[in-house]
Amino acid sequence: MNNGLGWASGRKSWLALPLVLVAILLAALFSDRAGFRPIDWENYVLAADRLRAGESPYQGVEFFAPPWIAILLIPLSLLPIELSSGVWLLTSAAAAFSATLLWTRFGSFPSIPRSKIMLSALTAASPVALYVYVTGQITALAELALISLAVLVGLSQQRRVLIPTVIAALLVTAKPHIVAFPLALILLQSVRARRWKVPIVFGTTILIAAVVSWVLHPGWLGEWLAGLLAGQYLGGPGLAARGYFGLREAGVPGILLWLPAGYALLYWIRKGLTASALALAIAGGLTLLPYLRIYDHLVLWPAAITASGLLRAKGPRSFAAVPLAAMLLLPLTDLAMLLPPLIVGMLLVRVTLGSRSAASN
After folding, report:
1. pTM of this structure
2. C-alpha–C-alpha distance, residues 324 and 331, integer Å
3. High-pLDDT (> 70) share of the chain, %
4. Which pick of 182, 211, 217, 310 has the fewest CB atoms within 10 Å?
């Protein structure tokens, strides 16, 4: 029976291929006609072009990802920017949709298939996602890679991990600062559960990618670190949003911003890699960051969905809409920086109350 289902699933995938190709073509034509050229996507393409020519992808370019991201983008950089922008837009939207769909599987909320689809569509059309599309950022692919690794490690029935882990390892490091903490817990969980394939493949992939990058441009490591430490991403020339104002700039003591991540670590030690633990790690990791753009808040959607599920399960159903509404509304205001601690607070309230209720029973 399983073989038949697998064959049928594979056949459906092949039948969907023409539709995917048509969608890519339409997206490319749209960007060509509309003159759609996101500023960060232009920087990605320029970095890929320079690396292909043996030059530095960092000097004079607002590119802060590891060089293997530029290597992966070389095929798209061969296209005219007007066409590749549309393909990138479609890729980002598909990644944002797929990341939420995967998360609903990992977190088992919502349970109704139609609700999963609707929620995935909502996140892919949310303001933070639109910021990703307009700027041409790679955040959606980093989010999808992070959730994919969580599924590979957290769901024991996964068998084929080589290719998914390789792809996820390359993409998740595109935005290392926003995924570092939850990624660390995912890899620690794989070691804790003695599922050695994921961390071994992950580490080997990054090592090979670093070596290949060194062959193409030996000085990449020093240039990448120099670019990160220079801090031009805090509002350098040409960025879509100049300057930066976050929680630290608002006067919040730095030590307080580390507390959610500390609690998430302790919760993971006690409970393992549950949806709540990873949601706390995502929100806590974003809270402690000294730098976070609006488009980076896309990674916060899984935590908001988990908070919504907990509120619905352990309180009035109307409360479940609060984290989702916050994700839809706050990015449209100057209060977007409050999103991570707000989601952390909702998670902590429900997780803490749930733990006390279980203890009393």
Report:
1. 0.88
2. 12
3. 82
4. 211
User: If you average pLDDT over every residue of the chain, what do you get?
Assistant: 85
Q: What does the pLDDT read at residue 83?
A: 84
Predicted local distance difference test score (pLDDT) of residue 249: 78
> Rounded to the nearest 5°, which phi and psi values hold at 231?
75, 15
Q: What is the distance between the terminal CA atoms of the chain, rounded to a whole angstrom?
A: 43
Contact 100, 76 (CB under 8 A): no
Q: Which two tokens stand for residue 361?
A: 């029973």
Average pLDDT score over residue span 43-70: 92
CA atoms within 13 A on the CB side of 200: 6
Q: Which pLDDT value is given to residue 107?
A: 87
What residue type is assigned to position 213 of the chain?
S
CA–CA separation, 31 vs 37, rounded Å?
A: 7
Opening angle at CA 277, ends 269 and 265, nearest 5 = 40
> What are the C-alpha distances in Å from 232 to residues 10, 65, 358?
46, 14, 49
Structure confidence at residue 343 as a pLDDT band (50, 70, 90): very high
Of 6-15, 178-187, 321-330, the one with minimum mean pLDDT is 6-15
Rounded to 5 degrees, φ, ψ at 142 are -65, -40
In the block, tokens 């890679």 appear at: 145
Residue at 219: amino acid letter: G
Q: Which residues contact 251 (CB under 8 A, 6 or more apart)?
A: none
Write out the chain in H/E/C secondary structure. CHHHHHHHHHHHHHHHHHHHHHHHHHHHHHHHHHCCCCHHHHHHHHHHHHHHCCCCCCCCCCCCCCHHHHHHCHHHHCCCHHHHHHHHHHHHHHHHHHHHHHHHHHHCCCCCHHHHHHHHHHHHCCHHHHHHHHHCCCHHHHHHHHHHHHHHHHCCCCCCCHHHHHHHHHHHCCCHHHHHHHHHHHHHHHHHCCCCHHHHHHHHHHHHHHHHHHHHCCCHHHHHHHHHHHCHHHCCCCCCCCCCCCCCCCCCCHHHHHHHHHHHHHHHHHHCCCHHHHHHHHHHHHHCCCCCCHHHHHHHHHHHHHHHHHHHHHCCHHHHHHHHHHHHHHHHCCCHHHHHHHHHHHHHHHHHHHHHHHHHC
